[in-house]
Amino acid sequence: MNFLQTVLEALESLNANKMRSGLTILGIVIGVAAVIAMLAVGHGAEATITGSISGIGTNLLFVFSGGTKDVRNPQPLTLADARALADPFAAPSVQAVAPVVQGSVEASAGGEKTATMVIGATTEYLTMRNYSLLEGDFFTAEQVAGRASVILLGPDVADRLFDRRDGLVGETIRINGQPFRVIGVLAPKGGGSFGSEDDVIIMPLDTARLRILRRESDRVGMILVQATGPQTVPQAIEEVSQILRQRHRCEIGADDFIVFSQEDFLNLARTITGVLTIFLGGIAAISLLVGGIGIMNIMLVSVTERTREIGLRKALGARKRDIMVQFLTESSLLSLLGGMIGIGLGWLISFVVGRIAASSGTPFEPVVSLNAILLATLFSAAVGLFFGIYPANRAANLEPVEALRYE
Questions:
Q1: How far is it, in rounded angstroms, from Cα 267 to Cα 285?
Q2: Alpha-carbon span 250 to 71, nearest angstrom
């Protein structure tokens, strides 16, 4: 019996029980579609997160207070630390430095109120974070030095307070009861390393530090450092670390600060999204196993129904191998047909998820990769073979005489 004849006979057998074959294929379809869709969501999430982080810039360093548990008398980051890091003689690999303070506030305008995040920063911060404007202008160094009551409004905050993003320059917003004038509306950036970058209000550093967050000392929450280039990032990390160790009088191996680079954030994001993708794919693969069990069940029923046929074939000279190949071909066809339909359904689900995300304002696009398609296809074929072996072997081991007597 050649391969083509075996396939044709398998198709005839499956066609003779259309409803049963269709329901069996449905289990594989659902399993493959779930695997494709879940892996697409995982890869899409990874692409979105890493793209957002990479968009900030590859030569940025984030300096935070903290360190090992064994640090005694840890020192906070201060404006004096930021000025020391900006010294070109002490840190030649550092191009710009931006101290930052931030905290939660309540903003109100026109009878509307909302909770949001306020960021106090210098003009360098806006450049380093690649902010752009829908309208208006950035605040100037003179406004920073003069503690001006001006703000840059994030698009999400503008939506909640005014239900629009244009024509807002000159509007007055009260933050924790104090009036501030809007001089610009930020362009949307989406999610970032530290939450949504659209749900913020940015104001001059000392304005936020002294008037809103009430920090009398020169303590800051974070210092953003820009290296002269991607190649000088390791050297800049070392220079920043040495300066802070000297200023904070840190013991050897006991820094009271942490320096993160963009690569650190990217690696962390890739690790998290990789685990998420494997987790989602593993859950979806359970559906494939359930579909495989359905194939085994149907094939066992088929063996029982066709016992006399099997006996007749063996009596006419069919070998054990021929019977096994026949039933394995049927189970493999069930899984392969289900796999091909499942690939199309999985792509459709991914497309719909992407459109729903786009309509809700979430910059997220599921990615259906070739690896995911190949994995789902091969896995579905393997499921058909694995769960078809036992019924095929059972059919092949039937004795012709006993099979012919079966009622």
A1: 26
A2: 8
In 137-285, beta strands by DSSP E: 150-153, 172-175, 178-186, 191-192, 195-196, 200-204, 222-227, 257-261
Rounded CA separation 66/44 (Å): 33
Residue 60 β-bridge partners: 226
Using CA atoms, how far apart are residues 244 and 307, in angstroms rounded to an integer? 82
| DSSP-assigned letter for residue 210 | I
Contact (Cβ atoms closer than 8 angstroms) between residue 177 and residue 149: no
Helices (H), 129-170: 141-145, 155-162
**Long-range pairs for 176-179: beta carbons < 8 A, 24 or more residues apart:** 176/105, 176/106, 176/212, 178/149, 178/211, 178/212, 179/149
Assign 293 to helix, strand or coil.
helix
* 8 A C-beta contact, residue 25 and residue 334: yes
CA–CA dist 152, 201 (Å, integer) = 6
pLDDT digits (tens, 9 = 90+) for 199-256: 899 999 988 888 888 776 788 888 888 888 878 888 888 888 898 888 888 777 777 8
Phi, psi of 251 (to 5 degrees): -75, 160
* Domain regions of the chain by residue span: 3-53+267-405, 67-255
The upper half-sphere exposure of residue 281, i.e. CA atoms within 13 Å in the direction of its Cβ, equals: 18
What is d(CA 206, CA 149) in angstroms, rounded to the nearest whole number?
10
| Token couple for 286 | 């359970």
- Residues 289-334 have pLDDT tens digits of 777 777 777 777 776 666 666 666 666 666 777 777 777 777 777 7
| Residue 41, C-beta contacts closer than 8 angstroms, at least 6 positions apart | 280, 350, 353, 366
